[in-house]
Amino acid sequence: MASRLIVSPFTLAYYTYHCFYSTGWIGPVSIFGYFVIGTFANKILMGPIVSTLFEQEKLEGDFRFKHMQIRVNAESAAFYRAGKVEHMRTNRRLQALLQIQKSLVKKELWLYIGVNTFDYLGGFLSYIIIAIPIFTGVYDRLTPGELSALISKNAFVCIYLINGFTQLIDLSTTLSDVAGYTHRYHRAYLDNRNGYFNDFNVHAGPVDTAFIVDQLSYKSPYADELLVEDLSLTISQGVHLLVVGNTGTGKTSLLRVLNRLWEAHSGFVQMTTCFGPRGTLFLPQKPYLTDGTLREQVIYPLKDIYPLSGAVDDERIVQFLELAGVSSLLRRTGGLDEEVDWNWYDVLSPGEMQRLSFARLFYLQPKYAFLDEATSALTEEAEAQLYRTCKQLGMTLISLGHRSSLEKYHDVQLRLCGGACWEITKLRGGSLKDEAS
Ligand SMILES: Nc1ncnc2c1ncn2[C@@H]1O[C@H](COP(=O)(O)OP(=O)(O)OP(=O)(O)O)[C@@H](O)[C@H]1O
């Protein structure tokens, strides 16, 4: 593009001189006039393309980002059972992208028609230009052979001259693309600076029970050794369970098996409550933040079930944000429904992400909440406040973690000891339901 920009002025000057030599002023002036009209027409056709291209680039970026977000956070999203919601959201982005691409193709079609018509009519222009001096008698002294040579030479010169201008116009098309991309990246740079719930395998069971685990053994899909062998346990309402153990002993894997993300090696898991609000909910170890407004973060993954859930919820959402200690986000976003085009993972600290996950939990108010190291980035005071609120909202907590400070919020402790061993102990006089292996 740069070389064409540099060479074009010289080519234009050279052929303008030759055109002037054979046709007089009429030739270069007609061609310049033709070029000005062509440029004007192109400008009109090109204007909307720049903004559409910018929009298309933005939507394409958003779509790619969504894909990346799902790939990176697949497990966390799966813990929320957010497959359908994410599918719907991704599809929505794809549709928006396809829509804008269609509109771009339509607009580009008119630009290409304009550019090609300009090229095509240029061929006629060369003959009209030379016809004027010929019919006004300037070349009467030439023989038919010389006249024919003059016409051919002039046609060649004019076509070259028009071609020089055409190249400039083509460059403008390329520039319109570049302008669109640049605008998009500039905006991105500036910005940087500054469910559905599927009930699965829900079996009738005691109403106050979430899971019945019987003789369960499980392992990682890529390992041969069992992480836990013959685990039997019942997760019942009102009995808060703490799962502890060294790194890699299989705490999160237990949740994967309970949530059917991993198959059990042997044994039996029965889920007796439904998944979702008023049922069972998992807060994954890696907080999952979707794209969208603050409201969408809090009510996730309900947005597509209750798309109109709006003002009536405002008070509750604000209250839960306050209880979770992230009401400042309201100021940062400018409101619950303000569209933000930042990546939530970039703008929140790990502690804020965990607090926002708790705001979501308070909003959804499940009967059973599985908290996988959900307070690891918070102070013990903040942890105490969040656990207290969960209990006040009537949740039964199943927590995974390393901190001894967690013990006081739980009644029973399941310790995974490594080498497939485990033990259950009673904490703080809670009701112990199963025997240690
Ligand atoms: N997605 C995965 N695919 C295959 N193996 C995995 C996967 N995630 C974890 N593992 C393996 O399963 C074993 C148990 O991991 P798990 O995440 O359950 O440990 P954990 O007890 O929760 O540890 P931590 O306290 O560090 O969270 C580990 O050996 C780990 O390498």
Automatic annotation (TrEMBL):
<dbReference type="GO" id="GO:0005524">
    <property type="term" value="F:ATP binding"/>
</dbReference>
<dbReference type="Pfam" id="PF00005">
    <property type="entry name" value="ABC_tran"/>
</dbReference>
<dbReference type="InterPro" id="IPR017871">
    <property type="entry name" value="ABC_transporter-like_CS"/>
</dbReference>
<feature type="transmembrane region" description="Helical">
    <location>
        <begin position="109"/>
        <end position="135"/>
    </location>
</feature>
<dbReference type="InterPro" id="IPR027417">
    <property type="entry name" value="P-loop_NTPase"/>
</dbReference>
<protein>
    <submittedName>
        <fullName>ATP-binding cassette, sub-family D (ALD), member 4</fullName>
    </submittedName>
</protein>
<dbReference type="GO" id="GO:0042760">
    <property type="term" value="P:very long-chain fatty acid catabolic process"/>
</dbReference>
<dbReference type="InterPro" id="IPR011527">
    <property type="entry name" value="ABC1_TM_dom"/>
</dbReference>
<keyword id="KW-0067">ATP-binding</keyword>
<comment type="similarity">
    <text>Belongs to the ABC transporter superfamily. ABCD family. Peroxisomal fatty acyl CoA transporter (TC 3.A.1.203) subfamily.</text>
</comment>
<keyword id="KW-0547">Nucleotide-binding</keyword>
<feature type="domain" description="ABC transmembrane type-1">
    <location>
        <begin position="1"/>
        <end position="152"/>
    </location>
</feature>
<dbReference type="GO" id="GO:0015910">
    <property type="term" value="P:long-chain fatty acid import into peroxisome"/>
</dbReference>
<dbReference type="GO" id="GO:0007031">
    <property type="term" value="P:peroxisome organization"/>
</dbReference>
<dbReference type="GO" id="GO:0006635">
    <property type="term" value="P:fatty acid beta-oxidation"/>
</dbReference>
<dbReference type="InterPro" id="IPR003593">
    <property type="entry name" value="AAA+_ATPase"/>
</dbReference>
<keyword id="KW-0812">Transmembrane</keyword>
<dbReference type="Pfam" id="PF06472">
    <property type="entry name" value="ABC_membrane_2"/>
</dbReference>
<dbReference type="GO" id="GO:0016887">
    <property type="term" value="F:ATP hydrolysis activity"/>
</dbReference>
<feature type="domain" description="ABC transporter">
    <location>
        <begin position="211"/>
        <end position="437"/>
    </location>
</feature>
<dbReference type="GO" id="GO:0005324">
    <property type="term" value="F:long-chain fatty acid transmembrane transporter activity"/>
</dbReference>
<dbReference type="InterPro" id="IPR003439">
    <property type="entry name" value="ABC_transporter-like_ATP-bd"/>
</dbReference>
<dbReference type="GO" id="GO:0005778">
    <property type="term" value="C:peroxisomal membrane"/>
</dbReference>
<dbReference type="GO" id="GO:0140359">
    <property type="term" value="F:ABC-type transporter activity"/>
</dbReference>
<keyword id="KW-1133">Transmembrane helix</keyword>
<keyword id="KW-0472">Membrane</keyword>
<feature type="transmembrane region" description="Helical">
    <location>
        <begin position="12"/>
        <end position="37"/>
    </location>
</feature>
<keyword id="KW-0813">Transport</keyword>
<dbReference type="InterPro" id="IPR050835">
    <property type="entry name" value="ABC_transporter_sub-D"/>
</dbReference>
